[in-house]
Design brief:
The structure is a single chain. The chain is of the alpha/beta class. Helix content is 49%, strand content 12%. The strands form 2 sheets. A 5-stranded parallel beta sheet has the order 3-2-1-4-5. A 3-stranded antiparallel beta sheet has the order 7-6-8. Strand 6 and strand 7 form a beta hairpin. The longest helix is centred in the middle third of the chain and has 15 residues.
């Protein structure tokens, strides 16, 4: 059965009291806060399934960092994909984040145009960041590539730079690719990589202000690819990357978690079997993939110099 996708879930009214969707407020929050954590669907699902006893830890860390949470419309589409309805545990987790004192943005990707317009004086300059990001991120097989092949006007604007002053380029691009989303594609991670690459070029911001919470190696690969393809003189600020195991290690190091059993539950959230991490043990000279049970990984995290989790 084909999944139905909607960027406005049928029960979106159930989260409206706890999120910000107004464009002007979104601009203020993104520019005015110390950290912006963009949630990928995979990690959101994992964290939303944590028992309430353990669900406080990640929001507590985000709050300590002066951060806000951002859920883009494509990620919201993925969360509501099977029925067009957000599951109750997702609604509960959104309320839980809000009740922890954290601002949550539910943002159309095209609203980045308004953010960039505060920092750059011409549409051409703003559009240029979108065009380069798309070209760096899109693969030979992807929803974005298929969309551009079917839409000559959009392809001419994005790939060949025609009509650079078009104020509607962001809206045209993001609306069109979202409408073409298919089950099992990687559009969510591609659009997150594009958004973060664009935001990394806002002048005056610190490295690591813009972050992604994801357990999808594909999403990290997209972000890594876009940064490597960018010429050194045009590279933006560093993007912070947090997997669930990495967050677990940070929570323990920051003394937000003291209890091994609680750490174990965070590490194993939404998973069965061994957990694969990219990390370094004490005698390693470079990162490697390590596969451990949640108990074994918790024990290494607790040991001084036991492991450094990269992802």
């Amino acid at each position: 059965m084909t999944c139905r996708y909607t960027d406005n879930p049928h029960n979106i009214s159930e989260i409206i009291p706890w999120v910000i969707i107004e464009k002007g407020k979104i601009v203020q929050e993104i520019l005015g806060n110390t950290k912006c954590y963009f949630y990928d669907a995979c990690s959101f699902r994992r964290h939303a399934n944590l028992d309430k006893e353990y669900a406080d830890y990640i929001p507590e860390y985000i709050k300590h960092q002066g951060g806000i949470v951002v859920i883009t419309r494509c990620i919201l589409m993925e969360l509501a994909s099977h029925s067009g309805i957000l599951n109750q545990e997702y609604i509960t987790y959104i309320r839980h984040i809000h009740d922890a004192g954290i601002t949550i943005l539910v943002m159309y990707e095209e609203d980045l145009f308004n953010v960039m317009a505060v920092c750059f004086s011409t549409n051409a300059a703003i559009n240029d960041y979108l065009c380069w990001s798309v070209k760096y991120v899109m693969g030979s097989v992807s929803t974005i590539t298929d969309t551009l092949e079917k839409d000559a006007r959009l392809k001419n604007e994005i790939i060949y730079g025609n009509n650079p002053e078009n104020s509607g380029m962001y809206k045209h691009f993001f609306e069109t690719v979202r409408a073409n989303k298919e089950s099992g594609d990687n559009l969510g991670e591609e659009l997150l990589a594009i958004c973060l690459h664009i935001l990394s070029h806002i002048p005056g911001e610190d490295d690591g202000k813009f972050c992604i919470i994801t357990d999808d190696k594909g999403a990290i690969g997209k972000i890594d690819t876009v940064m490597k393809k960018t010429a050194k003189q045009f590279v933006g600020k560093e993007i912070g990357v947090f997997s669930t195991p990495k967050l677990g290690q940070i929570l323990y190091r920051e003394k937000i978690i003291h209890n091994r059993e609680h750490l174990k539950e965070i590490l194993g959230a939404g998973t069965n079997g061994n957990i694969k991490v990219l990390g370094m043990e004490v005698h390693d000279i470079r990162g490697k993939e390590i596969s451990l049970s949640k108990e074994e990984l918790a024990d290494l995290i607790i040991q001084p110099n036991g492991i450094n989790i990269i992802f």
